[in-house]
């Protein structure tokens, strides 16, 4: 394709692009992923919406801006089953709720995706009344097991009860917390105004310290007649009770044997011996302060000896209210906050957010901007994979020596970010329709050195020392297995899904930016274990490097220096009323932003579909049956970042 | 070294002459302590990434003798609160701090640990770890650069140098004071203020 062609060429079929890289084995098990209905990336879902409207006559009506309404919540499961099996939208990307106090309803919004062919997600919505007691609807966990955590999140923040969810407890806050914090009429203790800029600061300018403004002199608020001395705190609800007794709680696999034991301890003839050796199962907390949980994650594991028989996650230890703060912020305010979601790859997150706002405002960035964004996002991917492989090796037991080498390489990339954007981690680089600074000649020179000399050598070195390492192979091959159909059902995205043989990458499946103009592949492996996830990451670094090299070679020819902002630079953005679900492929998987605008200066709804959070859905099924030492390796292979998990 | 300075009644053998230092016990004690701090392996959020970068090859925390990150609070001298302190996490942070043996120090790394930072208004955010545990050094920045973290270590070393065995709390009579662990109720309950909270709640 001609470089810098005025219009992007016809999109390549994602399936062909997702062909396996060299050395990949053919799938061992028959692929259970539904064959895509259309090979090419679909530009919209009008045909599918017409299809379900005709199929469920009278039940479906068109929703404003995007998607369809399902008018009777009780029939949601029926419609969703048809969407999955009849229309082949086999993965549920995102669930979220939006509060409309004026209409007295809470709207629950679903986005389903075809995997691996991609295309625009199909959006369907259900409205339920806001009042306590009536605010309930059926759970979709039976159709899409990946809905579990997201439904719990919507329950936690909005108070929507999902009947049938296997573990409907608060997930980000704690059990016993008063109120549904994301509802529009719920005010935090330090409430200062509905939206920024706050009147108290500007233009009136009589700002008081938050601590002096509130009666408790702290960021807390209590109901009337609250008595701390008689209150019984049970922040985790019945987490331990729910884990005792049931030997196998893997959802959807009631008959599967739990213990995969090499010594034949689970064979029938061993029963007599086992009866004699009566052992207890014990429940152990790992985290939130634990060196191997990659942050403040808490895993509650039930152990039989050293074998994990059940696992539950306790999240929310870093829940810092991105969404509530994001809805008070102006549109522009939110860009630096997105950096702090997944703090290893801030630049990739920014792109997801500005992409959504640009789509709503109808801005097309200049070619220079698109080139710079790809350059930065792909360098971020390399940097993030260096980090995650280093820490995977930590979890395997190669304590810090490999990680130190990779952090050194990462530092060179970070230095480039710092010189261009002004900060090492929190670059705050992208703007609506632009980026904040252009590369200078010297910075381009530095990027050249990295992309053509330093980084290829570093990746080769990594590959040379690690890939064939016996210890790595012994610890990783066959560990954390999750087949393709289960991965899709759990809404797993990113390198972990591609290691299970599903070539789903948002950059090809729902293209954005100029990715279609460059020559690169989506690496896919088929064994769905920790080792293949590692190999996919190594290969992805090479593919990212290919993109970076092409960008650097073509940038001076195709783009104008300094052309880094489409339209005029602005501080106040008024986004036309509308809704959008914009998604990008971050190093961890699909990062989506569901944005609703009412035409004002602030987002009406700002929801982050975070891949780290949703990938954790599948951790239990990956881990149960393995030894406790494997659980940290499996967690490491998922590569979560707590800032994005808890938001 | 002038020999006449050591003119006293204590006989010094010939081979030990020029090999004797005279210093105060405080100086020796602090000199040893300040160069062998063991921080706790404890990261909360974004700042933890910069903390790891500080410990890695380029910035090399080992130059300070501080590189031995301990995963157990029982073996740690220093807690680096590296990130946003949330209401859900503060009971664990207080518990960890209580478990550290004295002398113990605390560095509030970054805007969030200092004051709540960009997330201060959040409903699950504690506006600064110093609402619960005493902080020795605050570092601004979001996140602070590794150099800033090292600067805080130098400041903490200066603070340690000024302490005296005769006055430090942990050699005085009486038990170590531990901080009551906050409770997760309808909101975060600081048990030190439980009486005030009860009185205030009756009036709202």
Structure summarized in a few sentences:
Chain A is α+β, with helices and mostly antiparallel strands and 647 residues long. Chain A has 21 helices and 15 strands.
- Number of DSSP E strands of chain A: 15
Hey, roughly how much beta strand do the residues of chain A contain?
5-15%
Residues in helices of chain B, as a percent range: 25-40%
The DSSP helix count of chain A reads: 21
Spell the H/E element sequence of chain B. Answer: HHEHEHEHEEH
Q: How are the strands ordered across the major sheet of chain A?
A: 1-2-5-4-3
Please, how many helices of chain B? 6
| Poorly predicted runs of chain A | 1-39, 246-271
The helix/strand class of chain A is alpha+beta
Q: pLDDT below 50 for ≥5 consecutive residues: which ranges of chain B?
A: none
Explain what you see:
The complex is a heterodimer of chains A (647) and B (204). With 647 residues, chain A is of the alpha+beta class. In chain A, a hairpin with a 5-residue loop joins strand 14 and strand 15. In chain A, the strands form 5 sheets. Chain A has a 5-stranded mixed beta sheet with strand order 1-2-5-4-3, covered by helices on one side. Helices cover 35% and strands 14% of the residues of chain A. In chain A, helix 9 runs antiparallel to helix 10 (367-396), helix 10 (367-396) packs antiparallel against helix 17 and helix 11 (401-421) packs antiparallel against helix 12 (441-467). In chain B, the strands form 2 sheets. In chain B, strands 1-2-3 form a 3-stranded parallel beta sheet. With 204 residues, chain B is of the alpha/beta class. Chain B has 6 helices and 5 strands, in the order H-H-E-H-E-H-E-H-E-E-H. The interface between A and B is large, with 61 and 55 residues.
């Amino acid at each position: 394709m001609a470089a810098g062609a005025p219009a992007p060429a016809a999109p390549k079929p994602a399936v062909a692009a997702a062909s396996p890289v060299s050395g990949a084995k053919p799938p061992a098990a028959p692929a259970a992923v539904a064959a895509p209905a259309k090979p090419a990336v679909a530009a919209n879902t009008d045909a599918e919406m017409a299809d379900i409207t005709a199929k469920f006559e009278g039940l479906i009506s068109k929703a404003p801006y995007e998607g369809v309404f399902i008018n009777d919540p009780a029939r949601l499961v029926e419609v969703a089953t048809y969407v999955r099996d009849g229309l082949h939208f086999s993965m549920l990307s995102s669930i979220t709720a939006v509060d409309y106090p004026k209409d007295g309803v809470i709207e629950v919004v679903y986005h389903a995706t075809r995997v691996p062919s991609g295309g625009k997600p199909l959006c369907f919505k259900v409205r339920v009344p806001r009042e306590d007691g009536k605010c309930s609807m059926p759970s979709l966990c039976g159709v899409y097991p990946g809905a579990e955590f997201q439904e719990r999140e919507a329950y936690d923040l909005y108070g929507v009860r999902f009947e049938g969810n296997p573990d409907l407890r608060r997930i980000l806050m704690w059990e016993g917390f008063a109120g549904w914090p994301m509802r529009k009429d719920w005010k935090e203790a330090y409430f200062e105004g509905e939206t920024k800029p706050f009147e108290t600061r500007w233009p009136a300018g009589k700002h008081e310290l938050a601590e002096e403004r509130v009666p408790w002199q702290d960021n807390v608020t209590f109901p009337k007649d609250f008595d701390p001395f008689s209150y019984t705190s049970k922040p985790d609800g019945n987490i331990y009770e729910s884990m005792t007794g049931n030997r196998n709680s893997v959802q959807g696999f009631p008959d599967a044997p739990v213990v995969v034991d090499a010594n034949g301890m689970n064979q029938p003839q061993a029963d007599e011996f086992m009866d004699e050796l009566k052992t207890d199962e014990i429940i152990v907390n790992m985290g939130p302060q634990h060196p191997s949980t990659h942050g403040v994650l808490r895993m509650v594991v039930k152990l039989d000896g050293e074998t994990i028989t059940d696992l539950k996650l306790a999240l929310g230890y870093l829940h810092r209210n991105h969404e509530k703060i994001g809805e008070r912020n102006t549109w522009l305010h939110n860009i630096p906050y997105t950096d702090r979601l997944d703090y290893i790859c801030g630049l990739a997150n920014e792109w997801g957010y500005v992409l959504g706002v640009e789509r709503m405002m109808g801005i097309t960035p200049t070619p220079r901007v698109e080139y710079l964004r790809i350059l930065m996002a792909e360098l971020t991917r390399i940097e993030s994979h260096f980090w995650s492989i280093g820490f995977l090796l930590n979890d395997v037991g190669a304590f810090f020596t490999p990680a130190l080498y990779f952090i050194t390489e990462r530092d060179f990339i970070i230095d480039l970010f710092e010189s261009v954007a002004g900060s090492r981690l929190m670059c705050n680089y992208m703007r609506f329709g632009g980026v904040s600074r252009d590369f200078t000649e010297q910075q381009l020179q530095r990027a050249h050195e990295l992309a053509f000399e330093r980084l290829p050598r570093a990746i080769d070195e990594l590959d040379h020392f690690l890939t064939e390492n016996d210890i790595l192979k012994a610890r990783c091959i066959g560990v954390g297995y999750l087949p393709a159909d289960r991965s899709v059902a759990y809404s797993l995205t990113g390198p972990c899904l591609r290691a299970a043989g599903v070539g789903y990458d948002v950059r090809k499946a729902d293209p954005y930016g100029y990715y279609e103009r460059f020559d690169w592949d989506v690496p896919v492996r088929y064994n769905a274990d920790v080792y293949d996830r590692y190999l996919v990451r190594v290969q992805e670094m090479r593919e990212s490097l290919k993109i970076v090299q092409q960008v650097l070679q073509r940038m001076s020819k195709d783009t104008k220096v300094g052309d880094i902002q489409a339209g005029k630079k602005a501080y106040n953005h008024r986004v036309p009323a509308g809704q959008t679900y914009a998604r990008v492929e971050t190093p961890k998987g699909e990062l989506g932003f569901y944005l609703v605008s009412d035409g004002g200066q602030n987002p009406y709804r700002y929801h982050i579909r975070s891949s780290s959070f949703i990938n954790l859905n599948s951790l239990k099924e990956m881990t149960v049956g393995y030894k406790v030492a494997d659980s940290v390796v499996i967690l490491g292979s998922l590569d979560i970042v707590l800032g994005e998990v808890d938001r | 070294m002038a020999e006449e300075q050591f003119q006293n009644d204590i006989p010094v053998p010939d081979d030990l002459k020029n090999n004797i230092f005279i210093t105060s016990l405080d100086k020796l004690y602090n000199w040893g302590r300040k160069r062998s701090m063991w921080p706790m392996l404890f990261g909360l959020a974004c700042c933890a990434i910069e903390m790891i970068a500080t410990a890695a090859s380029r910035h090399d925390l080992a130059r300070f003798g501080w590189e031995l990150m301990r995963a157990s609070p029982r073996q740690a001298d220093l807690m680096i609160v590296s990130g946003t302190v949330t209401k859900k996490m503060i009971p664990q942070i207080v518990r960890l701090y209580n478990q550290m043996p004295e002398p113990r120090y605390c560095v509030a790394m970054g805007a969030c640990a200092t004051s709540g930072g960009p997330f201060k208004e959040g409903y699950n955010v504690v506006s600064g770890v110093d609402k619960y545990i005493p902080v020795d050094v605050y570092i601004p920045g979001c996140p602070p650069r590794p150099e800033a973290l090292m600067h805080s270590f130098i400041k903490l070393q200066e603070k340690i140098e000024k302490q005296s065995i005769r006055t430090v709390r942990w050699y005085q009579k009486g038990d170590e004071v531990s901080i009551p662990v906050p409770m997760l109720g309808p909101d975060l309950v600081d048990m030190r203020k439980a009486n005030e909270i009860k009185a205030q709640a009756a009036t709202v």
